[in-house]
């Protein structure tokens, strides 16, 4: 079947079920197993925001940052359970944009798909550039553009070989991050309880409140760190994009989502408690990794090298995820007539090669722009990542609320994985995200993110009405109860 035929599918297209009752995989290969899905879920919640950004947040809020991460982590759990309820109702690779299209309307699906695509393109640009800078820690003579080019090409081809290879890369990238955090926690516990190393004389849990209290700079300073905290959690929703390629989404996805509380408790709250017990919060400075500071205090001279290796893998993991998700988002838009038709075609291995190629090319262009003009203009583009990432969370919650109302009225089947406490927990999460956006507007360093949003919104609205006038059928309300025709791959 030609790509044009795929893109012009009937308006009533939905996900067909195979003989086992599972949702059809939209032409994709279900190559992501439980082991890989679990580590993708874990790795999605651990990024450079923890390894690097937490230093600035500690300087602002002191030990109360622990509370900020705990509360934000609870909100993230509500978001993920809302996503889980939708995924068990209909697990599709389009995920957020497909649910927005069904429950909120074609316009919202269009905006969500393109916004999430742009989020990962921008994130990929920043992360591959950051990875190149981390390489210079060991060898400053290696040109930044050269490392960025090599990393982008390697990850691009890895995403074109098979979805299993993507899963394996994410598994090992996540394993490095998890091992580093657990190692830091174990060493820190040893210092606190056994008193070894030069930090042993002062290390104590009393450090959490003995330097001007648990909330030394007041509740206002703690609230202002929430935007940093929420940024650290961006990409946790990536597990939803894997739904179309999970070997058994009805089992693996709920299991991955239910691990969110302990992941946050261990990797964020637990790690910060130990670090702040070893190093007084007053010794942290903006821009300095709390892990580097902790290793230095303990007296491990290779600590900076370890952290640099970890943040390098975190950056590469994020870029790898960007390559994966952008191709699938573009294909979802194409299948629904809201993107170029040629992007709908899959490779013989069931991979959205064309969308991935375009996204990778844009990431390379972004690296070149960053090399040529590293000033404010590029910062304005990068700042869009935060607000666009949170847009996906808003759409997940809004769609889950609409789905729950329809399911409760008997118009749709009930999900096998209901979000506990919904709709109240979902409404609370929406209110919390709204508060964070307001705080971003108050903070002059984050305000630029909000300036970008109306510009992108105007582009989306204008292009939507132009495309709708040219192809009204693609933007019509669809009947998601109708089966979808089989999708063929490229020869």
**What is the number of beta strands?**
0
- Shape, per Cα inertia axes: globular
How does the major sheet shape up? none
Number of helices: 19
User: What series of H and E elements makes up the topology?
Assistant: HHHHHHHHHHHHHHHHHHH
CATH architecture: Up-down Bundle
Q: How large a portion of the residues is in β-strands, by DSSP E?
A: under 5%
CATH class: Mainly Alpha
Question: In the residues, how many domains can be counted?
Answer: 1
Estimate the mean pLDDT confidence. Answer: 80
CATH topology-level fold name: Amino acid/polyamine transporter I
Rg is 22 Å
Which structural class should the secondary elements be placed in? Answer: mainly alpha
Share of helix, binned: 55-70%
Going by CATH, the homologous superfamily would be Amino acid/polyamine transporter I
Q: How would you sum up this structure, described in words?
A:
With 491 residues, the protein is mainly alpha-helical. The protein has one domain: Up-down Bundle (Amino acid/polyamine transporter I), CATH 1.20.1740. The protein has 19 helices and no strands. Helix 4 (65-89) runs parallel beside helix 10 (226-233). The chain is globular and about 70 Å long.
């Amino acid at each position: 079947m030609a790509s044009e035929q795929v893109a012009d599918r009937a308006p009533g297209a939905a996900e067909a079920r195979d003989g086992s009752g599972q949702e059809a995989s939209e032409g994709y290969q279900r190559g992501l197993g439980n082991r890989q899905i679990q580590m993708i879920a874990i790795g999605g919640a651990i990024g450079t925001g923890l390894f690097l950004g937490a230093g600035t947040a500690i300087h602002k809020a002191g030990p109360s940052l622990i509370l900020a991460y705990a509360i934000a982590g609870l909100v993230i759990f509500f978001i993920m359970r809302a996503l889980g309820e939708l995924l068990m109702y209909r697990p599709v690779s389009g995920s957020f944009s497909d649910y927005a299209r069904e429950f909120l309307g074609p316009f919202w699906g269009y905006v969500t798909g393109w916004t999430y695509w742009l989020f990962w393109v921008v994130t990929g640009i920043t992360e591959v550039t950051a990875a190149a800078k981390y390489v210079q820690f060991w060898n400053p003579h290696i040109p930044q553009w050269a490392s960025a080019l090599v990393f982008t090409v390697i990850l691009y081809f890895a995403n074109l070989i098979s979805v299993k290879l993507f899963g394996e890369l994410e598994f090992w990238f996540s394993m490095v991050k998890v091992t580093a955090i657990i190692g830091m926690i174990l060493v820190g516990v040893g210092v606190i309880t056994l008193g070894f190393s030069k930090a042993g004389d002062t290390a104590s849990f009393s450090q959490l409140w003995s330097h001007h209290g648990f909330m030394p700079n007041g509740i206002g300073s703690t609230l202002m760190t929430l935007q940093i905290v929420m940024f650290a959690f961006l990409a946790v929703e990536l597990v939803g994009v894997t739904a179309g390629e999970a070997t058994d989404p009805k089992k693996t996805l709920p299991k991955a989502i239910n691990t969110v509380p302990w992941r946050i408790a261990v990797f964020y709250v637990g790690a910060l408690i130990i670090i702040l017990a070893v190093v007084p919060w007053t010794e942290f400075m903006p821009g300095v990794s709390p892990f580097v500071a902790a290793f230095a205090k303990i007296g491990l001279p290779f600590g900076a090298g370890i952290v640099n290796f970890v943040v390098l893998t975190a950056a590469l993991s994020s870029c790898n995820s960007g390559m994966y998700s952008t191709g699938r988002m573009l294909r979802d838009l194409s299948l629904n007539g809201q993107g170029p038709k040629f992007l709908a075609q899959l490779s013989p291995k069931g991979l959205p090669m064309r969308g991935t190629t375009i996204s990778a090319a844009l990431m390379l262009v972004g690296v070149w722009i960053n090399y040529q003009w590293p000033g404010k203009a590029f910062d304005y583009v990068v700042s869009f990542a935060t607000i666009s990432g949170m847009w996906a969370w808003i759409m997940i919650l809004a769609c889950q609320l609409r789905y729950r109302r329809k399911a409760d009225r008997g118009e749709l089947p009930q999900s096998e994985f209901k979000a506990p406490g919904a709709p109240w927990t979902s409404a609370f999460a929406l209110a919390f995200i709204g508060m964070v956006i307001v705080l971003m507007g108050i903070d002059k360093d984050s305000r630029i993110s909000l300036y970008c949003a109306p510009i992108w919104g105007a582009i989306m609205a204008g292009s939507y009405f132009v495309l709708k006038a040219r192809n009204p059928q693609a933007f019509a309300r669809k009947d998601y109860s109708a089966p979808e025709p089989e999708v063929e791959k490229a020869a």
